[in-house]
Amino acid sequence: MAKAMTADEVRILPPYWEEAKAELMKRDRIMRKLIPQFGDLHLASRGEPFSTLARSIIGQQISVKAADSVWRKFLEVCPKCTPVQVIRAGDKLAGCGLSKRKTEYILDLADHFKAKRVQCDKWAEMDDEAVIAELVQIRGIGRWTAEMFLIFNLLRPNILPLDDVGLLAGISRNYFSGEPVSRSDAREVAANWEPYRTVATWYLWRSLEPVPVSY
């Protein structure tokens, strides 16, 4: 169920959001019915780049509930969630419920940030594919995680995460009466959403899980 936004959420409304809603509702009959169901809810940034990526790695291949539990334990060990703090925690991260592999991934992420092997201060000016190309060089970050970062941290308006099961499920439910859909089907439906594919994706996620989740 849609809920009232906090003052912080109102302040960080993506600048394209209202225009995107109007365009999508004008072009797409499904969006015309779906978007009004969520009132003033909108996409909001998930914080600093490092913590956003660390949380994305933690959430890979586990449920939202499990990911939230591990994240809370992670913040008990690394309350500031900085690269230096994570590196100092080292093997203690395993006690948060992280697998050995995910621990290695988060430590590698921290090392990339500490050694400045990523240009996070330039990401805002780089195009989508350039940011993805840089991120996927970090262990544990594939294209899906990079796309989630573009959506939830950089608030890019036109991301279509074709590897996302929630997007495919949302298209299946809303456009194909629950029938399975392929990436090709999804791409065809999404052609009508340009240049606001992020916004349409977000509303399809909400149609499955009304309360926004963190990636």
From TrEMBL:
One of its GO terms (molecular function) is DNA-3-methyladenine glycosylase activity. The keyword Cell inner membrane does not apply. It catalyses: Hydrolysis of alkylated DNA, releasing 3-methyladenine, 3-methylguanine, 7-methylguanine and 7-methyladenine. Residues 58-209 form the HhH-GPD domain. GO terms for cellular component: cytoplasm; protein-DNA complex. Keywords: DNA damage, DNA repair. InterPro entries: Alkylbase_DNA_Glycosylase/TA (IPR051912), DNA_glycosylase (IPR011257), HhH-GPD_domain (IPR003265). The keyword DNA damage applies. Its EC number is 3.2.2.21. SUPFAM superfamilies: DNA-glycosylase. It is an enzyme of class 3 (hydrolase). Transmembrane segments: none annotated. One of its GO terms (biological process) is base-excision repair, AP site formation. Coiled coil: none annotated. Belongs to the alkylbase DNA glycosidase AlkA family. This is DNA-3-methyladenine glycosylase II. It comes from Oxalicibacterium flavum.
